[in-house]
Amino acid sequence: MTVELLPIEPLPIEPLPRADWRESVALAADLALVGIAVTIGCLSVVGAGGTLVAASVAVGQAAAHRSFPPVRQLLGTLRWALLPGLGALLAAAVPAGLLLLDALAVADGRVPGGVPLLAATGLVAAGAVALASVALVRLGQTGGRGYRAAVRYAARLLVRRPLLGVAVVPTVAGPVLLGALVPATALLVPGFALFGLHAGGTPAWRSGLAATPAEPPQAALDRWLRRRGRA
């Protein structure tokens, strides 16, 4: 007796239905709360890295599935990400400080080079901002796990899609400028900036280098733990 296997057709991926105004208002309120939480968490400096990762996990699920993870899960992500986040923050602070010192020295005329060198420094800084932003979003897609893998992923994606970096920089710089010009909004803009990164980057990542589409953080965490268990 022979059994004929029928070909398996892939399931179509249908976009989420358009949200009505009440869902949009609720999402905006939740993003404002995320921004306040990020601002408070970053005041300690030590917890800034873990706070940003936990916020990216929350906003990533909201952008992909219109729902936030449970608070208990986010607190667990924050607790796990405090130490790795501090290491990542220190690793990013060193080149950022060097770029700032270089830009100030060139602007004051203490270092020769003038406008061309200052423009080159700005381009390097913009590339670093794009790399860090894409890596942060990738951490949000994987439940806050795999820092080095997220950086490698971000570097490969930006090399393959340089225009994505051009779009990422104003997505980050716009809210920062708004918070500087209108201090009353400084507490709110981090959540909206993260949402802009996640919502704008998800289609590119789904069609780019990502091995799997964006998934709920808990599913990503379970898959990561299973892979670690087989290693």
Architecture overview:
This protein has 231 residues and is mainly α. The chain has one domain (22-230). The protein has helices spanning 21-42, 48-65, 71-108, 114-141, 147-160, 162-181, 189-207, 217-230. The chain is globular and about 55 Å long. It starts with 20 loop residues before the first helix and ends with a helix.
Gap between N and C termini = 40 Å
Helix vs. strand class: mainly alpha
**Helical run tally:** 8
Low-confidence spans = 3-14, 202-218
Q: What's the order of the H and E elements? A: HHHHHHHH
Describe the structure using short key phrases.
single chain; 231 residues; 8 helices; 75% helix; globular; disordered N terminus; mainly alpha
Summarize the helices and strands and which ones pair or pack.
Blueprint: H1 21-42, H2 48-65, H3 71-108, H4 114-141, H5 147-160, H6 162-181, H7 189-207, H8 217-230
Helix pairs in contact: 1-2, 1-7, 2-3, 2-4, 2-7, 3-4, 4-5, 4-6, 5-6, 6-7
Give a summary of the structure in a few sentences.
With 231 residues, the protein is an all-alpha fold.
